Amino acid sequence: MLYAGIDEAGYGPLLGPLCVGCSAWQIDDGSDLGAAPDLWQRMKTAVCRKARDRRGRIAINDSKQLKGTGAGGRHPLADIERGVLAVLSALHGSPCETDADLFDRLGSAAPPVSEPWYAGCVSLPYACDAPHLSLGSSMLRRCLESAGLQIGGLHCSAVDAGPINDAARRGAVKSSLPWMLVMQHTHRLRAASAGQPLRLAVDRQGGRMRHVDELLREFPNDRLTIEREDETESRYRLDGPLGILVISFTVDAEAVHLPVALASMTAKYVRELWMQRLNRFFTARVEGLEPTAGYVTDGRRFMDRIRPSLERDGIDSTRLVRSI
Q1: Beta partners for 259?
Q2: Separation CA 143–CA 145 (nearest Å)
Q3: Packing angle between helix 258-283 and helix 78-92, nearest 10 degrees?
Q4: How confident is residue 158, by pLDDT bands cut at 50, 70 and 90?
Q5: 47-48 and 233-240 strand pairing
Q6: Stretch 284-289: mean pLDDT
Q7: Which residues partner with 223 through β-bridges?
Q8: Residue 32 has pLDDT above 70, yes or no
């Protein structure tokens, strides 16, 4: 069975990309498609939910739970970066040295080369300690061997303001964007599963309980069975030419499914790396400019400060600012 999870970061901001992460794990022990495997328990020698574990294990959890405050000089992204880079290192057998390496391994995660504010690379790791990262990656590889598990893949897709605004001009609404990216990952996973059962967990989309119509449009050649639809979870089974897909949309899925938690961390980390590049570009051009995370109120402050620079360089602000 391929057990996967999908989650997003950056749905609400004014600036920067919408990112959707996806992690997949190969489980070949006959696990039940209807029940979520507890990978935290199965990998407990190397993985935990909490930051600053005394045993040095890798923290995998919802990115909101792991992002720090910067207290004591510790970078707020230290645990998120360590988790994502440790998994990628264990998967590929070598560390990522720059964010360009990371984007290449994650698939459709690289910033557009046409936008000058995303130029250049960020050396990795930049938030966590390199020896601590190496220790975590080695610990994870040993754990996977003993637990009989494999990392099936780690991916991320990212869509910036320009394509988002183009979609809005074609009539797209904001809530349709995450669904589109989730379905792109779903189709890719299903094609890669080589006919074996796929158990996919997704955070509940926009509070909606029913997804039958959307799934039938995406998978017209499959037979759909509703397994559960309630306030906590909507779960469906699709049987078709590419095999069995069980897909669930769960409230707070990051707390139930480790693959969703890792997807959350990956999406957050990719978005932060994009924003690192953007902030570096504009702070070099506007004296005294404070960096931004891109959320609406602070994003407006940032845009007010950089507007003279945009006019001077002939940069169209619609390439930076989302309309939806």
Answers
A1: none
A2: 5
A3: 110
A4: very high
A5: unpaired
A6: 97
A7: 239
A8: no
Mean predicted confidence (pLDDT) in 18-37: 85
CA 211 to CA 246: how far, in whole Å? Answer: 13
pTM (predicted TM-score): 0.96
Residue 192 burial by Cβ neighbours in a 10 Å radius (0-12, 13-18, 19+): middle
- Any domain includes 309: no
Distance of CA 19 to the CA centre of its chain: 6
Residue 86 lies in a domain: yes
Residue 55 tokens read as: 């045993």
- pLDDT tens-digit series, residues 48-78: 999 888 899 999 999 999 999 888 889 999 9
> Could you tell me if residue 260 is inside a domain?
yes
Calpha distance 125→139 (Å, rounded): 18
Reported as a single tens digit per residue, the pLDDT across 190-246 is 999 878 999 999 998 777 889 999 999 999 999 999 999 999 999 999 999 999 999
pLDDT, tens digit (0-9, with 9 covering 90-100), for 83-128:
999 999 999 999 999 999 999 999 999 999 999 999 999 999 999 9
**Alpha carbons 200 and 189: distance in angstroms, whole number:** 9
Q: Which two tokens stand for residue 72?
A: 């004591």
- The residue segments making up the domain with residue 161 are 2-277
Residue 236 near residue 226 (C-beta atoms within 8 A) = yes
* Predicted pLDDT at 33: 72
Does the residue 266 lie in any domain?
yes
Q: What CATH number does the domain containing 92 carry? A: 3.30.420.10
Chain CA centroid to CA 88, Å: 13
Q: Which long-range contacts link 35-39 to residues 24+ away (Cβ below 8 Å)? A: 36/199, 36/201, 36/256, 36/257, 37/3, 37/199, 38/258, 39/3, 39/149, 39/258, 39/259
Give how many domains the chain has, as a whole number: 1
